[in-house]
Write a structure and sequence with these properties.
Layout (H helix, E strand, L loop, with lengths): L7 H7 L3 H12 L14 E5 L2 E4 L5 E3 L13 H13 L6 H8 L4 H12 L13 E10 L13 E10 L8 E9 L4 H11 L5 E4 L14 E4 L6 H18 L8 H13 L6 H12 L7 H6 L2
Parallel strand pairs: 4-7, 7-8
Antiparallel strand pairs: 1-2, 2-3, 4-5, 5-6
Length: 301
Amino acid sequence: MEDYPKTIIEFRDRFNSEEGCIKYLEQLRWPNGFICPYCKAEEFWRTEKILIKCKNCRKRTSVTAGTIFHDTRKPIRLWFEAMWYITSQKYGTNALGLQRILGLGSYNTAWKWLHRLRRVMVRPDREKLSGKVEVDETMIGGKSHGKRGRGSEKKVLVAIAVEDKKEGEKKEIGRIRLAVIPDASSKSLISFISNNIEEGSHVRTDGWKGYSNVSANNYEHTVLNSNDLVICHLVASLMKRWLMGTYQGAARHQHLDFYLDEYTFRFNRRTSASRGKLFYRIVQQAVTTTPVKGMNIIGKN
């Protein structure tokens, strides 16, 4: 059963101590009870607030080991505050905003936290798009122009897939998928489609040659005029506006995939009435995501 605070009052009451936060992480990491990663035994002692000692093999396991909180020097309670704040902001937040709201000592810490949290916003086992799906690409970057197949050194090519949920006269956009691709070749585009759309779905694209093999890969394929890919163009426009408004266009190319993950997370949950459930999803994925070192994030900056 999904267990999460429904309001900010419930959040503050439940997670007003480090112990409460650790208990919640433990609950999400081992929903069926603790299992020793070394010997698979289930009985244990608690030795310290984040350490569990197996009664069988006597080895210790940290509740935060192997998660994005691994080796953090900040209280888990502060991480929880960050995750609640991020999911409560309709359009997201930048590092400066997070630094101010949490009282973090440096902008760099806030920046690295945001990048860690973006890495848990998309589940690797999420369901693929299905039904009627529009696919297109868009360029993100500077003002220079580049050829569609090769792009430009100052631009990044992003593939877009959007479910069309239109019924009769009612227009409705479903889920989306976004990804940086190296070029608009058939290899790159078909790979994007295969990774993100269920076989047998009705894929609609323009007449670009890179889409010529879509039907050969177990999809129903319809070619439209580029101007008719309305919902792809809308998502591209909204996504670029979000990058410019929230991050002032400062999303570096090396990190763009993670910004796209955040936008996908927010867009696909845009109608959710429960901020608490969004918080729950991020914490749930945070305890199953391999940690990334700060130096590795900065190294790609």
